[in-house]
């Protein structure tokens, strides 16, 4: 199965009630070989109309964040926890999230990203329920993700949360700046070394930050 085929399959999904209210399914977009997979919550009005993720105001800021690390939207992959717009932009219901989950799981398995950026508390909660966005944004968390093994997660605030909050905007820009270094560390095998087993509660980058060598 190829990523593009999976995206096509999603277009006809009718597994949950969100299918009835949608204009378009929003499977996600970007490079099938992306090192960075960014995961938001779910499509809003603009995304539903266009069938593309993060194309409204939050999307504009997300594009800015991606470009701030010298990358483009084509270099990464952008997806959501649910692929169809919940009515009136309400939060997706737990049932909807669970029904949609196998799509995201397959996306992750096919892309095999080096880092999964969890944008906002809903995305974070689905992957690492024990984490808190206010405490864990900008930290590296590692967690077993069968069948891929240990996967590196990087929680950050949702770009929409920063639209009317200048300090969150700065925090997001600062957190994103760490991503290229995280990838370098993974590629050179150093992230493995400085982190230890079962590390959801551990924080290898903090450790290295304390040593003042990395950032
Ligand atoms: N917010 C999200 O979480 N996802 C989108 O695609 C757009 C806005």
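-> sequence recovered:
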């Amino acid at each position: 199965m190829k990523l593009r085929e999976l995206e096509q399959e999603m277009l006809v999904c009718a597994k949950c009630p969100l299918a009835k209210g949608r204009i378009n399914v929003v499977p996600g977009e970007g490079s099938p070989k992306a090192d960075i997979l960014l995961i938001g919550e779910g499509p809003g009005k603009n995304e539903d109309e266009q069938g593309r993720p993060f194309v409204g105001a939050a999307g504009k800021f997300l594009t800015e964040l991606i470009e701030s690390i010298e990358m483009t939207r084509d270099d990464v992959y952008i997806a959501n926890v649910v692929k169809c717009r919940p009515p009136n932009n309400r939060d997706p219901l737990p049932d909807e999230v669970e029904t949609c989950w196998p799509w995201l799981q397959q996306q992750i398995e096919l892309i095999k990203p080096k880092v999964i950026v969890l944008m906002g508390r809903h995305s974070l909660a689905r992957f690492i329920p024990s984490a808190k966005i206010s405490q864990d944004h900008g930290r590296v968390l590692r967690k077993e993700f069968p069948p891929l093994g240990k996967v590196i997660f990087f929680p950050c605030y949702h770009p929409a949360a920063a639209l009317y909050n200048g300090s969150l905007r700065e925090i997001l820009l600062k957190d994103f700046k760490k991503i290229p270094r995280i990838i370098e560390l993974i590629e050179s095998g150093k992230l493995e070394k400085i982190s230890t087993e079962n590390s959801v509660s551990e924080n290898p980058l903090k450790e290295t930050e304390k040593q003042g060598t990395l950032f």
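Residues 40-44, 47, 53-54, 58-59, 80, 160 surround uracil (CB under 6 Å).
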